[in-house]
Design a protein that fits this description.
alpha+beta; 4-stranded mixed beta sheet; 9 helices; 4 strands; globular; binds 2-acetamido-2-deoxy-beta-D-glucopyranose; signal; CAP_sf; PR-1-like protein; Allrgn_V5/Tpx1_CS
Length: about 220
Protein backbone atom coordinates (compact mmCIF):
# COMPACT_ATOMS: atom_id res chain seq x y z
CA UNK A 1 0.00 0.00 0.00
CA UNK A 2 2.80 2.31 0.93
CA UNK A 3 4.60 1.55 -2.30
CA UNK A 4 1.45 2.24 -4.31
CA UNK A 5 0.90 5.57 -2.58
CA UNK A 6 4.48 6.57 -3.19
CA UNK A 7 4.22 5.56 -6.81
CA UNK A 8 1.03 7.51 -7.37
CA UNK A 9 2.47 10.50 -5.57
CA UNK A 10 5.62 10.35 -7.66
CA UNK A 11 3.66 10.11 -10.90
CA UNK A 12 1.38 12.98 -9.96
CA UNK A 13 4.32 15.05 -8.94
CA UNK A 14 6.29 14.49 -12.11
CA UNK A 15 3.32 15.18 -14.36
CA UNK A 16 2.71 18.37 -12.40
CA UNK A 17 6.31 19.35 -12.91
CA UNK A 18 6.06 18.73 -16.63
CA UNK A 19 2.94 20.83 -16.88
CA UNK A 20 4.57 23.56 -14.84
CA UNK A 21 7.56 23.58 -17.17
CA UNK A 22 5.28 23.80 -20.22
CA UNK A 23 3.29 26.63 -18.66
CA UNK A 24 6.45 28.51 -17.81
CA UNK A 25 7.72 28.11 -21.34
CA UNK A 26 4.45 29.43 -22.73
CA UNK A 27 4.57 32.39 -20.44
CA UNK A 28 8.11 33.25 -21.38
CA UNK A 29 8.12 36.46 -23.37
CA UNK A 30 9.23 36.40 -27.00
CA UNK A 31 12.85 37.44 -27.46
CA UNK A 32 11.50 39.84 -30.09
CA UNK A 33 10.31 41.80 -27.08
CA UNK A 34 13.06 41.16 -24.58
CA UNK A 35 16.11 41.70 -26.80
CA UNK A 36 16.70 45.18 -28.21
CA UNK A 37 18.29 44.02 -31.46
CA UNK A 38 15.61 41.42 -32.15
CA UNK A 39 12.88 43.93 -31.44
CA UNK A 40 14.35 46.44 -33.87
CA UNK A 41 14.93 43.76 -36.52
CA UNK A 42 11.37 42.49 -36.24
CA UNK A 43 9.63 45.85 -36.45
CA UNK A 44 11.88 47.03 -39.29
CA UNK A 45 11.49 43.81 -41.19
CA UNK A 46 7.71 43.71 -41.03
CA UNK A 47 7.20 47.45 -41.51
CA UNK A 48 9.48 47.69 -44.53
CA UNK A 49 8.05 44.55 -46.07
CA UNK A 50 4.62 46.19 -46.10
CA UNK A 51 6.07 49.44 -47.43
CA UNK A 52 7.84 47.68 -50.27
CA UNK A 53 4.64 45.91 -51.24
CA UNK A 54 2.87 49.27 -51.37
CA UNK A 55 5.53 51.02 -53.42
CA UNK A 56 6.96 53.07 -50.55
CA UNK A 57 10.68 53.23 -49.81
CA UNK A 58 12.02 51.65 -46.65
CA UNK A 59 11.97 53.59 -43.40
CA UNK A 60 15.21 54.32 -41.60
CA UNK A 61 15.43 53.74 -37.87
CA UNK A 62 15.23 57.03 -35.99
CA UNK A 63 16.89 56.78 -32.58
CA UNK A 64 15.27 59.84 -31.06
CA UNK A 65 11.82 58.66 -32.13
CA UNK A 66 12.57 55.24 -30.67
CA UNK A 67 13.59 56.80 -27.38
CA UNK A 68 10.41 58.86 -27.19
CA UNK A 69 8.30 55.83 -28.08
CA UNK A 70 9.97 53.71 -25.40
CA UNK A 71 9.38 56.39 -22.78
CA UNK A 72 5.75 56.72 -23.76
CA UNK A 73 5.25 52.95 -23.61
CA UNK A 74 6.55 52.89 -20.04
CA UNK A 75 3.45 54.69 -18.84
CA UNK A 76 1.43 51.59 -19.81
CA UNK A 77 -1.55 53.74 -20.70
CA UNK A 78 -3.14 52.93 -24.03
CA UNK A 79 -3.51 56.43 -25.41
CA UNK A 80 -1.70 58.71 -27.82
CA UNK A 81 0.99 61.07 -26.61
CA UNK A 82 -0.36 63.93 -28.73
CA UNK A 83 3.14 64.71 -29.97
CA UNK A 84 4.00 66.14 -33.40
CA UNK A 85 4.89 62.79 -34.98
CA UNK A 86 2.65 60.02 -36.29
CA UNK A 87 2.08 57.43 -33.63
CA UNK A 88 0.71 53.90 -33.71
CA UNK A 89 -0.09 51.78 -30.68
CA UNK A 90 -0.63 48.09 -30.19
CA UNK A 91 -0.93 45.92 -27.14
CA UNK A 92 -1.31 42.30 -26.18
CA UNK A 93 0.34 40.55 -29.13
CA UNK A 94 2.62 37.58 -28.55
CA UNK A 95 5.60 39.05 -30.32
CA UNK A 96 6.77 42.23 -32.01
CA UNK A 97 6.18 40.95 -35.56
CA UNK A 98 2.57 40.14 -34.75
CA UNK A 99 2.08 43.65 -33.32
CA UNK A 100 3.10 45.25 -36.61
CA UNK A 101 1.35 42.67 -38.81
CA UNK A 102 -1.89 43.63 -37.04
CA UNK A 103 -1.46 47.13 -38.46
CA UNK A 104 -0.47 45.97 -41.93
CA UNK A 105 -3.43 43.62 -42.08
CA UNK A 106 -5.81 46.58 -41.94
CA UNK A 107 -5.15 46.98 -45.66
CA UNK A 108 -7.93 44.47 -46.38
CA UNK A 109 -10.40 47.14 -45.21
CA UNK A 110 -8.84 50.09 -47.01
CA UNK A 111 -10.37 51.63 -50.11
CA UNK A 112 -7.32 52.65 -52.16
CA UNK A 113 -9.35 54.49 -54.80
CA UNK A 114 -11.31 56.57 -52.36
CA UNK A 115 -8.50 57.06 -49.84
CA UNK A 116 -9.04 58.94 -46.60
CA UNK A 117 -8.69 58.31 -42.89
CA UNK A 118 -10.60 55.82 -40.81
CA UNK A 119 -9.97 54.41 -37.36
CA UNK A 120 -10.09 50.90 -38.82
CA UNK A 121 -7.25 51.53 -41.28
CA UNK A 122 -5.28 54.38 -39.66
CA UNK A 123 -2.37 52.19 -38.59
CA UNK A 124 -1.95 50.74 -42.04
CA UNK A 125 -2.06 54.08 -43.83
CA UNK A 126 0.62 55.48 -41.51
CA UNK A 127 2.74 52.35 -41.93
CA UNK A 128 2.96 52.63 -45.73
CA UNK A 129 2.67 56.44 -45.99
CA UNK A 130 4.96 57.41 -48.86
CA UNK A 131 6.26 60.71 -47.44
CA UNK A 132 7.27 59.18 -44.10
CA UNK A 133 10.99 58.42 -44.09
CA UNK A 134 11.94 57.36 -40.59
CA UNK A 135 10.45 55.75 -37.52
CA UNK A 136 11.34 54.38 -34.13
CA UNK A 137 9.52 52.07 -31.75
CA UNK A 138 9.62 51.12 -28.10
CA UNK A 139 7.85 48.54 -25.95
CA UNK A 140 7.10 47.72 -22.35
CA UNK A 141 5.63 44.66 -20.69
CA UNK A 142 2.59 46.18 -19.01
CA UNK A 143 0.13 43.31 -18.45
CA UNK A 144 -2.55 45.83 -17.62
CA UNK A 145 -6.17 44.86 -17.23
CA UNK A 146 -9.13 46.77 -18.56
CA UNK A 147 -9.67 50.48 -18.86
CA UNK A 148 -6.74 52.26 -20.42
CA UNK A 149 -4.13 49.93 -18.95
CA UNK A 150 -2.32 48.29 -21.83
CA UNK A 151 -2.58 44.49 -21.76
CA UNK A 152 0.48 42.29 -22.36
CA UNK A 153 3.30 43.95 -24.24
CA UNK A 154 2.62 47.53 -25.25
CA UNK A 155 4.25 48.68 -28.50
CA UNK A 156 4.51 52.32 -29.57
CA UNK A 157 5.89 53.44 -32.97
CA UNK A 158 6.49 57.06 -33.93
CA UNK A 159 6.80 58.21 -37.53
CA UNK A 160 8.48 61.22 -39.12
CA UNK A 161 7.39 63.08 -41.14
CA UNK A 162 3.94 62.08 -39.86
CA UNK A 163 1.46 60.39 -42.14
CA UNK A 164 -2.34 60.39 -42.26
CA UNK A 165 -2.41 63.98 -43.47
CA UNK A 166 -5.96 64.81 -44.51
CA UNK A 167 -6.18 65.47 -48.22
CA UNK A 168 -2.98 63.57 -49.08
CA UNK A 169 -4.15 59.96 -48.80
CA UNK A 170 -4.50 58.92 -52.41
CA UNK A 171 -0.96 59.99 -53.35
CA UNK A 172 0.64 58.60 -50.19
CA UNK A 173 -1.16 55.30 -49.70
CA UNK A 174 -0.57 53.22 -52.79
CA UNK A 175 -2.07 49.91 -53.82
CA UNK A 176 -0.02 46.74 -53.83
CA UNK A 177 2.43 46.65 -56.73
CA UNK A 178 3.80 43.54 -58.44
CA UNK A 179 7.10 42.30 -57.04
CA UNK A 180 9.18 43.38 -60.02
CA UNK A 181 7.93 46.96 -59.62
CA UNK A 182 8.56 47.23 -55.91
CA UNK A 183 11.14 49.81 -54.86
CA UNK A 184 14.57 48.89 -53.61
CA UNK A 185 15.18 47.85 -50.05
CA UNK A 186 16.42 50.32 -47.48
CA UNK A 187 19.52 52.30 -48.24
CA UNK A 188 22.72 50.93 -46.82
CA UNK A 189 22.91 51.58 -43.13
CA UNK A 190 23.87 49.75 -40.00
CA UNK A 191 20.18 49.04 -39.49
CA UNK A 192 19.96 47.45 -42.86
CA UNK A 193 22.91 45.20 -42.19
CA UNK A 194 21.25 43.99 -39.03
CA UNK A 195 17.99 43.60 -40.82
CA UNK A 196 19.48 42.12 -43.97
CA UNK A 197 18.66 38.55 -44.71
CA UNK A 198 17.63 38.65 -48.34
CA UNK A 199 14.28 37.04 -47.63
CA UNK A 200 12.30 40.11 -46.86
CA UNK A 201 10.00 40.63 -49.82
CA UNK A 202 12.91 40.32 -52.16
CA UNK A 203 12.43 38.19 -55.22
CA UNK A 204 13.19 34.65 -54.20
CA UNK A 205 16.12 34.16 -51.91
CA UNK A 206 18.72 33.86 -54.60
CA UNK A 207 22.38 33.90 -53.75
CA UNK A 208 22.73 37.03 -55.82
CA UNK A 209 20.58 38.90 -53.32
CA UNK A 210 22.53 37.49 -50.45
CA UNK A 211 25.81 38.52 -52.04
CA UNK A 212 24.42 42.01 -52.65
CA UNK A 213 23.45 42.36 -49.02
CA UNK A 214 26.79 41.07 -47.86
CA UNK A 215 28.79 43.40 -50.06
CA UNK A 216 26.76 46.43 -49.01
CA UNK A 217 27.35 45.67 -45.40
CA UNK A 218 30.99 45.13 -46.09
CA UNK A 219 31.07 48.52 -47.79
CA UNK A 220 29.74 50.07 -44.63
CA UNK A 221 32.32 48.30 -42.53
CA UNK A 222 35.03 49.63 -44.78
CA UNK A 223 33.66 53.17 -44.54
C1 LIG B 1 11.22 39.03 -42.18
O1 LIG B 1 9.82 38.88 -42.34
C2 LIG B 1 9.42 37.87 -43.23
C3 LIG B 1 7.91 37.88 -43.36
O2 LIG B 1 7.35 39.10 -42.99
C4 LIG B 1 9.92 36.53 -42.71
O3 LIG B 1 9.58 35.52 -43.62
C5 LIG B 1 11.44 36.59 -42.52
O4 LIG B 1 11.87 35.40 -41.92
C6 LIG B 1 11.84 37.75 -41.65
N1 LIG B 1 13.28 37.86 -41.63
C7 LIG B 1 13.97 38.17 -40.55
C8 LIG B 1 15.44 38.31 -40.73
O5 LIG B 1 13.45 38.36 -39.48
C1 LIG C 1 5.71 53.61 -57.51
O1 LIG C 1 6.44 54.75 -57.09
C2 LIG C 1 7.21 55.33 -58.12
C3 LIG C 1 8.07 56.44 -57.50
O2 LIG C 1 7.34 57.24 -56.61
C4 LIG C 1 6.28 55.84 -59.21
O3 LIG C 1 7.05 56.39 -60.27
C5 LIG C 1 5.46 54.68 -59.74
O4 LIG C 1 4.51 55.15 -60.66
C6 LIG C 1 4.75 53.97 -58.60
N1 LIG C 1 4.11 52.76 -59.12
C7 LIG C 1 2.84 52.48 -58.88
C8 LIG C 1 2.35 51.21 -59.49
O5 LIG C 1 2.12 53.18 -58.21
C1 LIG D 1 -1.91 55.31 -36.12
O1 LIG D 1 -1.06 56.40 -36.41
C2 LIG D 1 -1.64 57.44 -37.16
C3 LIG D 1 -0.58 58.48 -37.36
O2 LIG D 1 -0.31 59.12 -36.15
C4 LIG D 1 -2.85 58.03 -36.46
O3 LIG D 1 -3.45 59.02 -37.28
C5 LIG D 1 -3.83 56.94 -36.18
O4 LIG D 1 -4.90 57.46 -35.43
C6 LIG D 1 -3.16 55.84 -35.42
N1 LIG D 1 -4.14 54.84 -35.23
C7 LIG D 1 -4.40 54.35 -34.05
C8 LIG D 1 -5.66 53.53 -33.96
O5 LIG D 1 -3.65 54.48 -33.11
C1 LIG E 1 4.63 35.55 -33.41
O1 LIG E 1 3.29 35.35 -33.02
C2 LIG E 1 2.48 34.82 -34.05
C3 LIG E 1 1.04 34.87 -33.59
O2 LIG E 1 0.89 34.38 -32.30
C4 LIG E 1 2.97 33.44 -34.43
O3 LIG E 1 2.18 32.91 -35.46
C5 LIG E 1 4.41 33.57 -34.90
O4 LIG E 1 4.94 32.30 -35.17
C6 LIG E 1 5.27 34.25 -33.86
N1 LIG E 1 6.58 34.55 -34.45
C7 LIG E 1 7.71 34.43 -33.77
C8 LIG E 1 8.94 34.84 -34.50
O5 LIG E 1 7.75 34.03 -32.62
C1 LIG F 1 14.05 61.81 -36.42
O1 LIG F 1 12.85 62.37 -35.94
C2 LIG F 1 12.94 63.74 -35.60
C3 LIG F 1 11.57 64.15 -35.09
O2 LIG F 1 11.37 63.65 -33.81
C4 LIG F 1 13.34 64.56 -36.79
O3 LIG F 1 13.50 65.91 -36.42
C5 LIG F 1 14.64 64.05 -37.36
O4 LIG F 1 14.92 64.74 -38.53
C6 LIG F 1 14.50 62.57 -37.67
N1 LIG F 1 15.77 62.04 -38.13
C7 LIG F 1 15.88 61.35 -39.25
C8 LIG F 1 17.25 60.81 -39.54
O5 LIG F 1 14.95 61.15 -39.99
Amino acid sequence: MHILTTLVATLLCSSYNVRLAVAQQEEQASTEYTKDDEFKDAVMNVSNTYRKQHNATALAWNGSLAEGAAEWSERCVFEHSGGPTGENLSSGYRNASASIIAWGHERVDYDFKKGGFSKETGHFTQLVWKATTSFGCGRTECNGEGGKEAPGWFVVCNYYPPGNVIGAFTENVQGQVPEEEQPEGPRVSAGWCLWGGGEVGWKGSSEVVWVAVFVSCLGLWVM
